[in-house]
């Protein structure tokens, strides 16, 4: 901005640049002419170089720059060093074109030296100072407005009388998803919004221009041409020129989409709550501190024999019950007000308007304001009349069967014991039959296949020791050896699947079992594979068969490594947790289920491979099912793993990760 030091002192400081001593004296005389002058000659400097520091002095308000002799370069240098300081240029008559050029470069005015008079010089200097200040003030106001427009999050716009945009701020630019504000100029709402909102906005703007009255805080639903939907709180004003004539509109819109959606959710929840309240069989009502009913549901209206809720609202219990019953209910209400504590499931006995005895379970809960002041009570009353009558009938029936209670209990105990024995025998028969079937299969395979495979293996080994002239013979023998090895792996998988189900359960540290499994697969981790361990140090011990559980972990780790062809990261994690809420019965196994409050120990194996196809996830634990190429797997590994985990009373889960790869999770009871 322009220097403001002269506002706090008398007079204006004038700096001369490019003047000699004689010219300086002449200027000084003209500034003093006419009596008391507001101008004070600050200094005179012949060279521009020596004047640059002086131009920044607080006492300098205006510069008289003599460009006689072609000092345009010096003027440009001075202008760049003090862009806000007003400069009046003096020149010879033949240099008037050059002087005019300085005005284009930022000079306030120019004077021709032979034509200078004292009053003209003084008036020109004063005009230059005041004009510079006015321009600086205007620039400051313009900068403030630009800063506000470009940084305010609300969308601000200006339109002409044809509703075409003539200026938009940065928030509006971002909302329209255009690169520059200028891309919106000359366009209308129809270029950015659907026809419904565009026509409504145009109608509002025409009404504003015709009436001169603003449209304030109107909630608008906006749908852009790309289908995006939003809500805005909009104010539209008439845009007037300096004469007061309306030449267009301007407006500001605040994004309220999030608030609108919250309002819709609240309204939906309010309707849902009202629907639930009105359809519950329990009586629900709200009372103020004076005992007047404020909200009642349909069940409560019916219980009082009223035709509608309006017959109850504003009344108290004294309007519907006898004095004794109403007073007793009022006393119970006062207990809640005095203690600020709810009364839950208090049994109440009374006579209804039809003269019938009724029993209810009443719950009274304080209703608080935002300032934690008690405003009233929320009450829930459940009719237990039938239950009370049933209890009386049950007491009579209980007295009748009391003599045979011991016999009934004895029979029930025997029946339960027989049921448990039957279940145990049934499970044993199922297991035995399964094991016999698998055992016969394994024995048959061992007899029919394993021995011939052994003969083939010895034959291949023997032939491999002989040198053959055909170079393809060694390759064929190697392929035969690999085939025999794969067949032997299938047989071993069958034997594992049909192995005895007895476990040697001992307390063990799961972290040690995982480390043992990692040691067994370390030869598989060559060539770009990484292992990340995330072990909980204080894991509770679990009762497991260490050898069999290590076998399952080795299988899972090997699958994870094979899934990441070319390298990747295997992340192994162990931790424990207590099941504390609904939805944490986490097992999906038929043999492993957990209840709230139990502690489980979990081992997870993550890989960064491509994951398992979604259509195959439901079959991965089936025997002989595999996602590996032919010759790479038997399809028995995960079946064996699931069998071992089921025998431990645990569960196993295998699923894809949203970030890529798959996760195998073993859950065991602690």
Largest sheet: 5 strands, parallel
- Trace the largest sheet across and list its strands: 2-1-3-4-5
Gyration radius over CA: 47 Å
Low-confidence stretches: 1-8, 582-592
Structural category is alpha+beta
Anisotropy-based shape: flat
Q: What is the average of the pLDDT values? A: 81
Total number of helices: 16
Précis, in short:
This protein is 42% helix and 23% strand. The protein has 670 residues and is of the alpha+beta class.
Name some characteristics of this structure.
670 residues, alpha+beta, five-stranded parallel beta sheet
Describe what this molecule looks like in 3D:
It is built from 16 helices and 22 strands. By secondary structure, it is an alpha+beta fold. Strand 3 (62-66), helix 3 and strand 4 (87-91) form a beta-alpha-beta unit. Helix 1 (21-32) crosses helix 5 (118-151) and helix 15 (546-563) packs antiparallel against helix 16 (637-647). The longest helix is centred in the middle third of the chain and has 60 residues, at 405-464. Residues 1-8 and 582-592 have low confidence and may be disordered.
């Amino acid at each position: 901005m322009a220097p403001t030091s002269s506002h706090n002192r008398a007079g204006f400081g004038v700096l001369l640049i490019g003047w000699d001593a004689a010219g300086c004296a002449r200027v000084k005389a003209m500034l003093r002419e006419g009596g008391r002058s507001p101008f004070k000659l600050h200094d005179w400097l012949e060279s521009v170089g020596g004047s640059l520091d002086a131009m920044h002095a607080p006492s300098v308000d205006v510069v008289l720059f003599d460009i006689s002799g072609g000092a345009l370069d010096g003027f440009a240098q001075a202008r760049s060093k003090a862009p806000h300081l007003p400069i009046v240029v003096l020149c010879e008559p033949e240099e008037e074109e050059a002087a005019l050029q300085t005005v284009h470069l930022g000079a306030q005015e120019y004077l021709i030296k032979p034509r200078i008079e004292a009053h003209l010089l003084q008036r020109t200097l004063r005009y230059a100072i005041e004009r510079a200040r006015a321009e600086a003030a205007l620039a400051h106001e313009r900068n403030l407005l630009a800063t506000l427009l470009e940084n305010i999050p609300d969308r601000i716009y200006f339109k002409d009388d044809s509703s075409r945009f003539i200026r938009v701020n940065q928030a509006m630019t971002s909302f329209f998803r255009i690169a520059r504000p200028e891309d919106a100029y000359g366009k209308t709402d129809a270029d950015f919004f659907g026809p419904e909102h565009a026509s409504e906005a145009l109608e509002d703007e025409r009404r504003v221009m015709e009436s001169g009255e603003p449209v304030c805080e109107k909630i608008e639903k906006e749908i852009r041409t790309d289908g995006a939907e939003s809500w805005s709180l909009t104010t539209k004003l008439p845009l007037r020129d300096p004469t007061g004539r309306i030449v267009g509109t301007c407006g500001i819109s605040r994004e309220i989409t999030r608030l609108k959606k919250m309002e819709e959710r609240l309204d939906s929840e309010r309707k849902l709550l009202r629907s639930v309240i009105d359809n519950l069989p329990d009586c629900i009502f709200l009372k103020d501190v004076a005992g007047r009913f404020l909200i009642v549901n349909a069940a409560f209206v019916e219980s009082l024999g009223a035709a509608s809720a309006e017959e109850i609202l504003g009344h108290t219990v004294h309007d519907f019950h006898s004095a004794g019953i109403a007073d007793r209910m009022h006393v119970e209400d006062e207990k809640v007000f005095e203690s600020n504590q709810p009364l839950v499931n208090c049994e109440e006995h009374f006579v209804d308007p039809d003269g019938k005895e009724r029993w209810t379970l009443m719950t009274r809960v304080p209703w608080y304001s935002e300032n934690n002041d008690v405003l009233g009570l929320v009450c829930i009353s459940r009719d237990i009349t039938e239950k009370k009558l049933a209890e009386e009938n049950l007491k009579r029936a209980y007295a009748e069967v009391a003599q045979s209670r011991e016999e009934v209990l004895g029979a029930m105990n025997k029946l339960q014991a027989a049921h448990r024995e039957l279940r145990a025998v049934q499970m044993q028969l199922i297991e035995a039959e399964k094991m016999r079937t698998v055992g016969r299969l394994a024995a048959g395979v061992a007899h029919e296949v394993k021995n011939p495979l052994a003969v083939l293996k010895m034959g291949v080994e023997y032939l491999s020791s002989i040198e053959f002239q055909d170079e393809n013979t060694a390759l064929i023998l190697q392929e035969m050896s690999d085939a025999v090895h794969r067949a032997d792996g299938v047989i071993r998988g069958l034997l594992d699947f049909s192995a005895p189900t007895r476990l040697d359960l001992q307390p063990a540290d799961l972290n040690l079992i995982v480390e043992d499994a990692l040691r067994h697969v370390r030869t598989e981790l060559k060539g770009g594979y990484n292992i990340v361990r995330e072990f909980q140090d204080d894991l509770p011990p679990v009762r497991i068969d260490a050898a069999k559980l290590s076998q399952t972990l080795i299988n899972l780790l090997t699958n994870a490594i094979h899934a990441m062809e070319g390298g990747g990261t295997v992340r192994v994690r162990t931790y424990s947790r207590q099941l504390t809420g609904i939805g944490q019965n986490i097992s999906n196994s038929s043999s492993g289920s957990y209840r709230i409050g139990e502690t489980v120990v979990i081992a997870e194996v993550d890989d960064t491979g491509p994951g398992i196809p979604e259509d195959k996830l439901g079959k991965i634990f089936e025997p002989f099912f595999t996602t590996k190429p032919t010759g790479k797997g038997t399809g028995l590994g995960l079946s064996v793993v699931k069998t071992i985990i089921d025998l431990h009373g645990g569960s196993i889960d295998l699923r894809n990760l949203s970030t890529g790869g798959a996760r195998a999770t073993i859950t065991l009871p602690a």
